[in-house]
């Protein structure tokens, strides 16, 4: 019997299933390379942009597949296909309608506006949209993004009318820039209500996170209330959510909410801070079971992503010295001398990552900054014929 069907791939989900002795099958995005740990009989690939009928029909390819306990979306592109498969198999979880509301940022913001929940003003860009009309309505700077992307991939902050005009893409959306302090809320959701909530500090948005946030305690009640309201408005009944918000002079503003596990090493940071396994808790939630969670963090955890940009890596210095610094727990470096480093197209890409643990925020921040200053990447520019473009895979 297959206990779980995973849509998309995250190593943490596979490891959690293995620890639990759970039999799992995988539906993988055809645009991605099949991960080495998976056996050939465990997976099927499909274009995640396929029609609902085409995706649902893929269930027939799992010859040994009985009705699984849960269908779990692990990536942003997997959210809607997973909902389609749930419906086809009669499995409980995020519905197709709610999946679209969480995945499509235009639908999401329309839903939030109807619920009178404040979010960034926006407009959908079409062939007739002019730069000046967007500026007149939304002001400068403007945020231009795909309506179904994640990890800030492809997002452009246009600060001049020329930059807006150069980046008008029909089908994309434009948002008014939110002048505020950005952070996020991670929740495990059962029966439409959060049963566990963590607030993450964006020490350096897109680069460094602190879990749990220590600087938002005065706003915790309002943050948790907004989080509950957004989850309810979008119709998330079960699973995990990653809710990005801004604290402004006029109150809270929702950026967006994702109905899948967060990136940025947050699953690991939350698990380390609260000392329970977030991946295993998610498997329980998606399977209709109530997980054992810990609501009070036992430590403060932090991480800092390093990425040197595009070029040929000649040398990396300071790694061993950084690993010996107080409060540093470990440093992972995937880039090696002699390898090429591509451009950073999204916040999920890194060359190295520093992890720190402490009893105070200051201990963690100081450790991360000290380690970051210690590590130096020496790169030579790529020859023009080897330089990557925004369309190339990272």
Strand arrangement, largest sheet? 13-12-9-10-11-14-18-16
Give the overall shape, derived from the CA principal axes: globular
Cα-atom radius of gyration:
21 Å
Poorly predicted runs of 5 or more residues: 388-394
Could you tell me the mean pLDDT?
Answer: 91
Number of helices: 12
Estimated share of beta-strand residues: 25-35%
The biggest beta sheet, please?
8 strands, antiparallel
- Euclidean distance between termini CA atoms: 37 Å
**Which structural class do you get from the secondary structure elements?**
alpha+beta
The percentage helix is 25-40%
Count the E strands. Answer: 19
Walkthrough of the structure:
This protein is globular. It contains twelve helices and 19 strands. The two termini are 37 Å apart. 39% of the residues are buried. It is of the alpha+beta class and 394 residues long. Helix 3 runs antiparallel to helix 4 and helix 4 packs across helix 5. The strands form four sheets. The protein has an eight-stranded antiparallel sheet with strand order 13-12-9-10-11-14-18-16, sandwiched between helices. A four-stranded parallel sheet has the order 3-2-1-4, sandwiched between helices.
List keywords for this structure.
394 residues, alpha+beta, eight-stranded antiparallel β-sheet, four-stranded parallel β-sheet, 19 strands, disordered C terminus
Give a short summary of the structure:
This protein has helices at residues 11-20, 52-57, 79-89, 96-103, 105-114, 131-138, 161-166, 220-234, 266-274, 278-286, 319-323, 361-374; strands spanning 4-7, 24-29, 43-46, 70-73, 122-124, 142-145, 156-158, 173-176, 181-190, 193-204, 208-211, 238-248, 251-258, 300-306, 311-317, 328-333, 340-341, 352-358, 376-380. With 394 residues, the protein is α+β, with helices and mostly antiparallel strands.
């Amino acid at each position: 019997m297959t206990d779980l069907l995973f849509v998309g791939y995250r190593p943490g989900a596979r490891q959690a299933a293995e620890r639990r002795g759970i039999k799992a099958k995988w539906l993988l995005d055809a645009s991605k390379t099949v991960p080495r740990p998976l056996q050939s009989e465990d997976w099927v690939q499909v274009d995640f942009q396929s029609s609902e009928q085409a995706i649902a029909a893929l269930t027939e390819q799992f010859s040994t597949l009985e009705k699984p306990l849960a269908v779990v979306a692990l990536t942003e592109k997997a959210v809607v296909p997973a909902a389609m498969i749930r419906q086809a198999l009669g499995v409980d979880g995020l519905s197709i309608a709610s999946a679209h509301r969480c995945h499509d940022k235009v639908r999401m913001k329309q839903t939030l506006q109807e619920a009178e929940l404040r979010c960034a003003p926006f407009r959908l860009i079409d062939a007739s949209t002019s730069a000046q009309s967007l500026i007149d309505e939304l002001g400068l700077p403007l945020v231009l993004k795909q309506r179904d992307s994640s990890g800030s991939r492809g997002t452009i902050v246009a600060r001049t009318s020329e930059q807006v005009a150069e980046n008008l893409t029909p089908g994309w959306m434009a948002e008014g820039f939110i002048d505020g302090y950005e952070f996020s809320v991670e929740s495990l959701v059962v029966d439409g209500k959060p049963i566990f909530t963590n607030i993450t500090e964006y020490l350096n948005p897109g680069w460094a996170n602190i879990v749990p946030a220590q600087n938002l305690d005065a706003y915790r009640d309002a943050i948790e209330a907004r989080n509950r309201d957004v989850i309810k408005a979008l119709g998330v009944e079960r699973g995990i959510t990653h809710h990005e918000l801004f604290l402004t002079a006029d109150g809270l503003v929702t950026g967006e909410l994702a109905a899948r596990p967060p990136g940025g090493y947050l699953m690991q940071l939350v698990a380390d801070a609260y000392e329970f396994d977030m991946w295993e808790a998610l498997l329980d939630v998606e399977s209709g079971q109530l997980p054992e969670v810990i609501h009070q963090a036992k430590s403060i955890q932090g991480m800092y992503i390093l990425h040197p940009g595009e070029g040929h890596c000649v040398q990396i210095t300071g790694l061993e010295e950084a690993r010996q610094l107080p409060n540093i727990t470990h440093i992972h470096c995937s880039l090696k001398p002699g390898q090429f480093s591509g451009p950073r197209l999204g916040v999920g890409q890194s060359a190295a990552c520093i992890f720190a643990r402490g009893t105070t925020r200051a201990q963690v921040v100081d450790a991360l900054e000290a380690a970051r200053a210690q590590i130096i990447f020496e790169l030579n520019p790529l020859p023009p014929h080897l330089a990557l473009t925004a369309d190339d895979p990272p």
